[in-house]
């Protein structure tokens, strides 16, 4: 009986340590603007860098709604619980091509650019509210300020947390949502990357023993954040 009880407690703790990104722009109802993944119940991570799930997890084709926001405004990114593990949070966007719909476009190809990156790895909780471990002094949601020169149009938003608590076994918590930029600028977002493909096996910012020795400096994987300046 004791063994069974201990196993159930362990399973509950394991599931509780997982999380997902559920919405862009609005907090509820869950999956209003966020694409619900097939594994939403267990909140499991993506561990294979070559998997198509690196793009939008196991997401369904669409969410019911699209969040409207102007370039230069804040775009809240909501997750359901946590974060429980140390590691960087990053947010990417991809503009929906002409003739395609934000409701069913899958974000394939070299189309993603980074608009947010925060929280490195310092070998432990930098900030805590008693239950959760935060990489910086912000709670949920993550408030992403869009570049003022972001062109108007429809976009997929890809939110990612890279958990680095197990040596050389990275866990990616990923979710995608639907956004329309109502008033925009004339910038040229970039550099553009593809998922899968942007992250490589052996990348030291992904594969390493971050617990020992604890890193002094850490740079997250992927391209630099696009701040609104045109790329060359």
From TrEMBL:
Q: Where in the cell is it found?
A: Secreted
In this chain, the stretch annotated as Disordered covers 27-47
Q: Which GO terms describe its molecular function?
A: hydrolase activity; metal ion binding; monooxygenase activity
Q: EC?
A: 1.14.99.56
Cleavable signal peptide: 1-17
The Auxiliary Activity family 9 catalytic domain covers 19-215
Write the record's keywords in alphabetical order, separated by commas.
Answer: Carbohydrate metabolism, Cellulose degradation, Copper, Disulfide bond, Hydrolase, Metal-binding, Monooxygenase, Oxidoreductase, Polysaccharide degradation, Secreted, Signal
Q: Which cofactor does it need?
A: Cu(2+)
Q: Looking at its record, which EC class is this enzyme?
A: oxidoreductase
Q: Which reaction does it catalyse?
A: [(1->4)-beta-D-glucosyl]n+m + reduced acceptor + O2 = 4-dehydro-beta-D-glucosyl-[(1->4)-beta-D-glucosyl]n-1 + [(1->4)-beta-D-glucosyl]m + acceptor + H2O
Q: Per the UniProt entry, what are the Gene Ontology biological process annotations, in alphabetical order?
A: cellulose catabolic process
This protein's GO CC annotations: extracellular region
Q: Which family does it belong to?
A: Belongs to the polysaccharide monooxygenase AA9 family.
Q: What is this protein called?
A: lytic cellulose monooxygenase (C4-dehydrogenating)
Specify the species: Diplogelasinospora grovesii
